[in-house]
Amino acid sequence: MKCMSEDESAAVGEPTPEIASEVFGDRLPVAERYADILVQQGVLRGLIGPRELPQLWTRHLLNCAVLSEVIDDSETVIDIGSGAGLPGIPLAVARPDLEITLIEPLLRRTTFLDEVVEGLHLGNVTVIRGRAEEKAVLKQVRPADVVTSRAVAPLERLARWSAPLIRGGGRLVALKGQSAADEIARDWEKVMRFGIRDLTVEQCGTMLETPTTLIVGRRNESARDARAARRAARKN
Ligand SMILES: C[S@@+](CC[C@H](N)C(=O)[O-])C[C@H]1O[C@@H](n2cnc3c(N)ncnc32)[C@H](O)[C@@H]1O
Questions:
Q1: What is the H or E stretch that residue 126 is in?
Q2: Residues 41, 32: Cα–Cα separation, whole Å
Q3: What is the DSSP-derived secondary structure letter of residue 165?
Q4: How far is the CA of 73 from the CAs of 30, 77, 97, 99, 119, in angstroms?
Q5: Does residue 220 contact residue 168 with C-beta atoms inside 8 Å?
Q6: Which of 182, 30, 6 is nearest to 94 (CA)?
Q7: Residue 220 C-alpha to ligand 1 middle, in angstroms?
Q8: pLDDT at 7
């Protein structure tokens, strides 16, 4: 999947599709405000490509919000490499019960994310500037029930960065496209070294024209396993 900021040609915004009210429920007006911010500022500030605007809902906001289907009540979520807020912001809008931390290294992007969080009054979102694998970041966050990512890195690297941020027994949930099964076939042995197993390809948002394809993996339970995974992540 392409980073939204890589596109460069001009385009216009997409009207709110009907299905959006099913996905966001009574939070739809907040999702619409986020869409407006992306349309008005995302391109200007180099955070999204203009070509993404006509598919802002169908390819981005809805595909990210339906992640909600694989996240239980009141779980904690860390979203690594959030960019302009995907998938973390649509998820936080749709699910105020979740506590979501967005980890993003680029100042331009974290400044934007801070503004979105404040502007939309998202009391359930914290923004941290840094790389997921940095010690300073690991010190600031408690391992979460779920670590999400979209368009950030190939599976092996993603597992290396995500593992120390997932609590024992928690899940890695990576939004992937058609490459999902191939990535698992290629990387599963390395991923196991980081203490993540039971990798599966899942789909959510089957009511959407293009459902979201996920790689889901489970973090080992024990503290000893967790320490071994941290050591493996440091070595690689
Ligand atoms: C291709 S963009 C995807 C952004 C967003 N997830 C989306 O789907 O639109 C990749 C993002 O990952 C961030 N990133 C790259 N390396 C990272 C790391 N080690 N830890 C956290 N974020 C990282 C980049 O700064 C960038 O914002």
A1: strand 125-129
A2: 14
A3: G
A4: 20, 11, 7, 10, 25
A5: yes
A6: 30
A7: 25
A8: 45
Angle at Cα 188 formed by Cα 186 and Cα 190, nearest 5°?
95
CA of 104 to the centre of ligand 1 (A): 6
Helix axes 155-162, 223-235, angle to 10 degrees: 120
pLDDT of residue 232: 72
Check whether 138 has a pLDDT greater than 60: yes
Q: Considering only CA atoms, which residue is closest to atom 18 of ligand 1?
A: 131
What domains are defined for the chain? 24-235 (3.40.50.150)
Q: Are 55 and 41 in contact (CB under 8 A)?
A: no
* Binding residue ranges for S-adenosyl-L-methionine: 81, 86, 132-133, 150
**Residues in a beta bridge with 78:** 101, 147
Cα(82)–Cα(88) distance, rounded to whole angstroms?
A: 7
* DSSP 8-class letter at 16: P
Residue nearest to atom 11 of ligand 1 (CA): 81
Q: 47 alpha carbon to ligand 1 midpoint, in Å?
A: 11
Greater confidence (235 vs 85) lies with 85
DSSP assignments along 34-78, one per residue: HHHHIIIIITTTTSS-GGGGGGIIIIIIHHHHGGGGGS-TT-EEE
Separation of 150 CA from ligand 1 center, angstroms?
8
Q: Pocket residues for ligand 1 (CB within 6 Å)?
A: 3-4, 80-84, 86, 103-106, 109, 131-133, 150-152, 161
pLDDT digits (tens, 9 = 90+) for 7-65: 444 446 889 999 999 999 999 999 999 999 999 999 999 999 999 999 999 999 999 99
Output the known binding site. 81, 86, 132-133, 150
Q: What is residue 9's DSSP assignment?
A: S
